[in-house]
Amino acid sequence: MLYTSEKEKMLAGMPYDAWESELLADRMRAKSLCARFNMADPTDLDGRMAILRDLLSFKDTAHMEPNFFCDYGYNIEIGCNFYSNHNLTIVDVCKVTIGDNVLIAPHVMISTGTHPIDPVERQITEYGSPITIGNNVWIGGNASILPGVTIGDNCVIGAGSVVNKDIPANSVAVGNPCRVIRTINAH
User: Fold this and answer.
1) pTM
2) What is the tally of structural domains in the chain?
């Protein structure tokens, strides 16, 4: 397939120029909306979430605590009954799909973006790989979810984990690198 814009390259996970004018404008819009959300009255729960509904795709009910940061917003799809605690960062250069009934503890980073290892290439391009988080997942505080990872349904990701590989459904996984330590008997 021939990609005609940097945005098309980015969404396809190909190397792209993040400083191209369309992408820069998209990022500035997302950062502006995140800033409005982060500074909104903490007692106005519906008003705060209305700001994010202009940025993210929510399937249904969701609650997010400030601070929240993302790069674009339009690459993030969130299922029903979602909750994130303070300081969630999502680097969404590619699609981030989050299922239903997902709980995210404080200080979690979900990043689809990465950079070339070669230092010369790293100065001019970046790229990404999509992330999928299944239904009924709980992600512990300070966890990092890295590009290209899929976390299956019913998983628990331990606090401080660095998830750099897929985690199968019905698993408790912890550590750096994150690894499965037990299976959950889902009802």
Assistant:
1) 0.95
2) 1
